[in-house]
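In practice, a research group might receive sequence data for several interacting partners and want a quick structural hypothesis before committing to experiments. The following worked case mirrors that situation: the sequences arrive first, and a predicted assembly follows.
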Amino acid sequence: MRRVRILAQCRKELLQFRRDRLTLGLAFLLPLLTLLIFGFAIRLETKVIPIVVQDFDRSPLSAAYTDRLFATDQFRPAPWRGGGDPVAGAIDPGLARAAVIIPSEFSRRLKAGQPVEVQVLVDGTDANNARVIRNSIQGITAFFGADKELIREPPPVRALTRLWFNPGRKESLYIVPGVYAVVLWIFPSLLAAIAMVKEKDKGTILQVYASGISAAELLLGKALAFLLVGASVAVVVMGLGGQIFQLSVVADPTPLLVGTTLYLAAAVLFGLLLGVRSANQNAAVQGVSLVGFLSALLLSGFIYPLSNIPPPLSLVSALIPARYFIVISRDAFVRGTGWAGVWLDVLMILVLGALLYGATLRSLGSLQLGDGGEGGP
Amino acid sequence: MPNSSPAEAAALVVSVEGLHKRHGSRPALTGLEFSVRAGEIFGLIGPDGAGKTSTFHILAGVSEPSGGRVRVLGLAPRAARERVGYLTQQFSQYPDLSVEENLRYMAGLRLVSPEHWRQRRGPLLRRLGLEPFADRLASQLSGGMKQKLALCCALIDRPQLLLLDEPTTGVDPVSRRDFWDVLTTLAEEGVTIVVATPDLVEAERCHRIALMQQGRLESLGSPAELKQELALSRLELQGAAPAAAEPLLCGGAIVDVQTFGDRLDVLVNDAVAGEAQVRELFRRQGLPLLELRHSDPTLENVVVIRQRRQAGELPLLPFPHPAGCRHQRTDLAIDARQLSRRFGAFEAVRQLTLQIRYGEIFGLLGANGAGKTTTIKMLCGLLAPSSGAIVLAGESERLRGPDLLRRIGYMSQKFTLYDDLSIRENLEFYAGVYGIPASLRQARIDWVVASCGLQGQEQLLTAQLPGGWKQRVAFGAAVLHDPEVLFLDEPTSGVDPLARRQFWSLINDFARRGTAILVTTHYLEEAEQCNRLCFMVAGENVIEGSPGAIKAAQPGQVIELLLPPEQLQAATLLLRRHWAAWRVSRFGDRLHLVLDHPEREIDGLRPLLAQAQLSLEGLRRVPPSLEDAFIGTVQRAQARQGERP
Amino acid sequence: MRALRHWWRRLSASRLWALLRKEVEQILRDRQLIKLLIIPPTLQLLIYGFALNPEVHNLRLGVVDYAQVAASRELVSALTANRIFLAASYPSSERELARQVERGELTAGLVIPPNFNRRLAAGDSAEVQVFIDGVDANSAGIASGYIQQILRRFRPQTGAPPPTSPLRTQVSFLYNPGLTSSWFFVPGVIGLVLTLIATLVSAVTLVREKDTGTLEQLLMTPAAAWEILLAKILPLVVLLMGDVLLALLLGRLVFAVPIRGNLLLLLALSGLYLFVGIGVGIMLATVCRSQQQVMLTAFFITLPMVQTSGAIAPIESMPTFFQLLSLLNPLRHYIAILRGLMLKGVGLEALWPHALALLVMAPLLMAISVSRFRGQLS
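A structural hypothesis for the assembly, expressed as tokens:
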């Protein structure tokens, strides 16, 4: 293997990269855009849910109960006025997510110590939030009961709950390190795939084939160039992400450094693999955006916990480097355990990267045209 | 190499035995057999789809043969890659890198040491005239300079063998000549060159050529040998009325007749008998005949005759025109004044004025990037001019109106049929969109199919047709609706010479019936078939007029010198020391020298050549060819610009 | 009958017919297009549907039980009874527990103090400590809610019977009583997939003509721009309706998502929405020069569209700015329609604002993109 060839290849890729505005935008602008959209727009936990309260009692006690429901920022009154069926009027058209119906005689019966049932109708379409809504309303109702001394006995066990790592339950602490994994996977691989396929499309690959360069030299040259590009993307994205979402490294930074480098290398190799395997740029871009994006987004534990992915898919997810990088990234920015917590994940990325290298080298083969008649008659 | 002695092996740079290659199930090469000696320029000649590129792929080691034995520099092609330079057919340098960056990249891949790089870079760029453009992006180079860059990149590692796949296609004649001069010098320095070209005039400069057709090697030899093998003589008839005379010249000793503008080329079995027959014919018909000259057949003659003997000619069927001839008109079909088109800062077409009458064939000539396609697009309304006025078939306002479009035919440069439709589906589609009445549809589609010789293959997917055939079908699709004005953008590129002739017969047929035809081409010899033509250089009209008038307007007298092939290059260099460079040019296997005062200057010429041990075998005055005219005009313009500060 | 035959003859001789026929012939030969129409939607629907699961269950709980009495064990079994928590380890000390939570081996920790039983017996409140890994803020919030709820109800059997509060809530879940989370995601993903495919396919078929140069040839024919476009769009709408059916069928068969509303209305509004996708696609085709650019740009137009549509994360929880922005997002309205018709079983009486939004946006987008395309043609 000749270092000169690898460096010549790498220098050429970087020169080309610098000249092409589309790829420049792809490399820097779009990752930032993605970071912002994901960072700001993805909020899994629902706050300020619109609900409707239908009070048939209209007593001071029922008014106090209603006030209590809206006392926290969890609920807000839905823009629905007037009587009639709250389901047809407010929940069906999506104005409210739940309706609380206070029966008449609410106040009288409670004061008499007789049981009262408040009916709660929850829109179950979003199952996750439906549960959150139910738990909150039940909790508020229980507190209301305790407050008004409807229950004479305090609960025997109280919990002193502490949230570790993220006491404020800021969702950006969960989402943003995950976005790093998604962004640093897709863009470097997309750039590498395009660069690879472009050579085939433009016919320049013939010149490379004829020059006597070996497959490993070609692959390493290209990978090195896009690894450098990826590293600068990582610096920009993590730097700005840290500023905007107030994230900083809370642990030993070496696992993050090593992990990011290996992860970027794996991403670039993945892109090159798709580039080598696809017949044209379309297929390559489609492959990266479909396979790369879907897996990094959905099978990596980026949005919902990994343990929720059912068996056949969870096996696939074990092969996805993004899943391991998310652990490293969350550890570096939120958890802070360092090497002790993440060594296995770094190792897994290394193993997957090596597999990708092997696969790409195999598909490059002997650097010759196939018999499919590429390059015309 | 077990089969040959070491000495022989050393002399043979390339040896190919029984080479086969299949692309999928389609055979690309069948039983190729040839060898190339050191220091030789070896030409692979054939139309698109003949297998030239497949051969290059194998020689360059980028694809494996399906069968047979190939040795390059005594090694398997893959092992020899480091000593072989390869210019692919498609420009394969990086358009977004500068000249210098491209060269440095190739030097890196080919492991040129830093000292060698420093030593070679400057001289190489200077030699190919690229030094002033070292920082320019490859995409901003002209076609000719791109090819020179590619050659530069191939030469940086001092290869022993150069593989050049159509290096001069689409390159202007001046750069083309420069390029060939460099090749000739390289060959003299001992570099072996295998080159493909569709241009048969250029092919004359090869030492030996292999004629290829459909993956087979048809014949092999030096141009002279091939011509001799043909055993025919050529008579050039000057000043005859070609249109009237051509149909009469047949039978007897006459084998083939072709019109080149105002000249008729007649191939005869026997020169003496042929001349007698021709003179007799002309006398009987009372036709004028200014001059009759004997000469050797050209390579084009060789190819056409061989092909015709082998496959027979396609029938020339008359287009099924509707009954009742269209009335002949002599008004202007296209009237364009002061057309300009800018793309950003780049001015693609500058102040171009063209007038084309019905029934006229107008040729637009120029290299790639000279502005031909932009002009055509403006004339047919696809592109709005930045300034200027166009009247097309009487319309000046609505160039995109359906009524006007129905009267116009257009065949764009890119291949314009749907690859994923069958031939018949394509033709039916165009017949449908042009609203050709159902009563005429079938006859016209049948006409296209028959005149392309594709009967029974209408269900074939268009993608499966070789390039030349596609062009013919595309032409058929463009004229299905019998247009009044026809735009043809490089209709004959990649088409073999015989089919090219048929193309021109069809074009002539349409012109005779009153269609105005605007055609672009970069084959200069084809341009002789136009009634009028204009040369474009960098968006400007350099010369305009009928071929005869253009040639007549050339200053000086062209003297054709015949020398032994191996002395041509030395003679060129010698003459260029005594006369301005534009006056001396290689023309196939001859030298053309333009002299202002031939009477006086010829006397000095003979001793000059004799002194340099060059044997002049013949010398005669010839009318200038269009290529002479074009090169002369461009170079005089450049010389004038050079004189200005 | 004769009138029909006459009409047929006129149609089959028309330019539009020739254009349509050519498009259909091309589509039938284009294996890549057929693959594009079938494989990515199926794959996306399945992966999204299975992989997106927000349920909080089997959280790994570590328990340090200093009390080691029946009541403390009862507490642990109450917490793990409904499989939200899984007692994964019993570390010996609080420090060991903390270490395991830090390393991510456990998601939650429970520390039961030594005086647990004593305080319970005394009738005082016993206090237990709960640690939750807060990295996943969403799951952590839900988990802590559950813990509060379970503890509120917890009465050790040795103690007093559970009190009966007179104030009770009776919760019923509308539309999705089993709270199957895929029912929420599947309609969202159907909307997402259709947007992606409609945009891509229409942009690609247009750009391909541009790419190969046949568009130029087409423009030199007397066919009007509207005829060329209509001939391209009509077969696409038919094909994409096939995709709608495919997606609905997958949702029904694989995820058992019901279609409670009027199927015809669903199909009609889907057809309307397809024009939005096609409009975006044509727009892309006017911007891009090559198929590769189309792919890339399509990818990045659809990404924000999907993110602000409520397909994955509920719109109510987005910042106000994004909520307002999402009103302009046609996908948001289409997903609301899909959920309304599939899950809620409501009709136009509830969905008319969304339908109206599409009715305005689809023609507007089409008009803009078509006029842009025509502008490029001439």
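Before designing any experiment, note the following. Chain C has 15 helices and five strands. Chain C touches chain A through 102 residues (CB under 8 Å).
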